[in-house]
């Protein structure tokens, strides 16, 4: 295909007509943008022919690398049949087959799949299901309609997701229109609010949650958590045993456990789903990012038979879940997702990943002594490197110094794309990364931090 626009023309047009997400556009229009034209494996190639390693997996979605022949082929094959049909009153083969696969792979007890388009909508669906469930279950408990979330949580940018997130920087302008929820402290071991250390702390940060549940469980519909690791918070892994204790509290106080596996699902933590690390089955589970291997926007909310049954009744009882999106169960997306899951099996992805996770740990260990590095946090193939002003006092850099951003710019010059979160450098390589590429990524990070120092 002949390229119609030069880089310069595209850059000018971008600056004229686009509004980028999470981007200060005043600054954006002053810089020459990187415009990605192609991708292959772990690499992205821009309109000027420069090659970059994809250190964010294209914002946490790409698992098997770009242009994986099997997913490419699955989408082409589906295109020969149909690109989209509605799930409202109709079904389609890829959506059915994918639902079956997801249930087989997900924690035992989850038996129903409800599709949507992205992580935020998958969370919204879970919240609406939880509220309607309590209104319709026998005996009904319609007063159970508030939620608990952790501090620093992130569950998406829609109103429900924002209401249950703890990222003040992102959501403050909307506080007046968000719904009320309970916030409890997150298990942040590097900056423990209780100044305790694991394991002697016995996960005492769970006490406020337990107290809240004891007092208020009759009005609480559910608790939402990012199992094993709070990702957007800066890759904050929870101590071993935390998730299981949460599950126990939910069962004890009769509140639903909503697992937001949008970031952690599909192998990112080393297991297919993060809940598996502690043998936990949530009542509702939201999945999206890795679902199609980074090819198509698709999400799902999984739940169990008990919740599903509460929505059954005669038509005129109006127990139906009146929720859906135009692209719910999109056949192209489902075909891509099916191919994604086949690759996991056929290419033994999780087995190979285990070795890469170990290698990554070893590489990171060597970095611990570097200046500016306060904490290196890893959960499977997710890494957060927190830069601090003083490694002894853990004194943080003010956000206005933009340390993460400055290091990311240095990485970019050296051919690695990462997207920092405040002072935390975040590395989430595709699982298909070669050991050579992985070593190169860590080396570039290390050199870039030194450069800024
Ligand atoms: C990314 C993310 C979301 C939101 O997903 P989108 O696809 O961006 O809407 C929700 N929860 C978690 C844990 C996420 O990481």
Structure, described:
- Strands 4-12-11-10-7-5-6 form a seven-stranded mixed beta sheet, sandwiched between helices. It has a four-stranded mixed beta sheet with strand order 1-2-3-16.
- The protein has helices at residues 7-17, 25-28, 57-60, 69-79, 93-105, 119-136, 159-163, 168-171, 207-216, 242-253, 305-309, 331-346, 349-365, 403-413, 435-452; strands spanning 36-40, 43-46, 51-54, 110-116, 146-150, 182-184, 220-225, 229-230, 236-237, 256-260, 284-287, 299-304, 373-379, 382-390, 395-396, 416-417, 424-427.
- Helix 4 (69-79) runs antiparallel to helix 12 (331-346) and helix 13 (349-365) runs parallel beside helix 15.
- The mean pLDDT is 97.
- A hairpin with a 4-residue loop joins strand 14 (382-390) and strand 15 (395-396).
- With 453 residues, the protein is an alpha/beta fold.
- The protein is built from 15 helices and 17 strands.
- The radius of gyration is 22 Å and the shape is globular.
- It has two domains: 34-64 and 350-452, Aspartate Aminotransferase, domain 1 (Alpha-Beta Complex); 72-346, Aspartate Aminotransferase, domain 2, CATH 3.40.640.
- Bound molecules: pyridoxal-5'-phosphate.
- Pyridoxal-5'-phosphate binds at residues 118-120, 123, 154-156, 226, 231-232, 260, 262-263, 288-289.
Briefly say what this structure is.
Helices cover 35% and strands 17% of the residues.
């Amino acid at each position: 295909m002949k390229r119609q626009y030069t880089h310069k023309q595209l850059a000018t047009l971008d600056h004229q007509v686009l509004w980028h997400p999470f981007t200060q556009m005043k600054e954006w229009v002053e810089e020459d943008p990187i415009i990605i034209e192609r991708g292959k494996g772990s690499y992205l190639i821009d309109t000027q022919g420069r090659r970059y390693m994809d250190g964010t997996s294209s914002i946490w979605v790409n698992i098997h690398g770009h242009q994986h022949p099997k997913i490419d082929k699955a989408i082409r094959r589906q295109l020969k049949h149909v690109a989209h049909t509605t799930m409202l009153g109709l079904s389609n083969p890829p959506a059915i087959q994918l639902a079956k696969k997801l249930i087989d792979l997900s924690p035992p007890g989850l038996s129903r799949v409800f599709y949507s388009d992205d992580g935020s909508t998958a969370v919204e669906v879970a919240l609406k299901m939880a509220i309607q469930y309590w209104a319709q279950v026998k005996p009904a408990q319609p007063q159970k309609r508030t939620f608990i979330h952790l501090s620093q949580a992130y569950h998406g940018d829609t109103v429900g997701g924002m209401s249950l997130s703890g990222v003040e920087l992102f959501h403050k302008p909307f506080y007046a229109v968000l719904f009320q929820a309970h916030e409890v402290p997150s298990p942040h071991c590097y900056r423990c609010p209780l100044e305790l250390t694991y394991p002697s702390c016995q996960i005492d940060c769970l006490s406020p949650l337990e107290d809240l549940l004891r007092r208020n469980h009759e009005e609480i519909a559910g608790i939402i958590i990012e199992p094993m690791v709070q990702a957007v918070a800066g890759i904050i892994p929870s101590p071993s045993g935390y998730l299981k204790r949460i599950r126990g509290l939910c069962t004890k106080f009769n509140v639903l456990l909503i697992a937001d596996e949008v970031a952690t699902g599909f192998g990112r933590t080393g297991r297919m789903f993060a809940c598996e690390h502690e043998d936990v089955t949530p009542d509702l589970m939201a999945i999206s990012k890795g679902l199609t291997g980074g090819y198509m926007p698709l999400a799902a909310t999984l739940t169990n038979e008990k919740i599903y049954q509460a929505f059954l009744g005669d038509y005129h009882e109006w127990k139906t879940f009146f929720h859906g999106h135009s692209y719910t169960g999109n056949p192209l997306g489902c075909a891509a997702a099916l191919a994604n899951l086949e690759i996991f099996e056929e290419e033994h992805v999780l087995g190979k990943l285990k070795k890469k996770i170990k290698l990554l740990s070893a590489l990171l260990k060597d970095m611990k002594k570097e200046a500016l590095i306060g904490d290196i946090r890893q959960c499977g193939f997710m890494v957060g490197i927190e830069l601090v002003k003083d490694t002894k006092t853990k004194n943080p850099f003010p956000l206005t110094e933009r340390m993460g951003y400055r290091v990311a710019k240095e990485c970019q010059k050296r051919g690695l794309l990462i997207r920092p979160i405040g002072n935390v450098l975040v590395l989430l390589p595709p699982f298909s990364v070669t050991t050579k590429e992985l070593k190169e990524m860590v080396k570039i990070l290390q050199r870039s931090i030194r450069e800024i120092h």
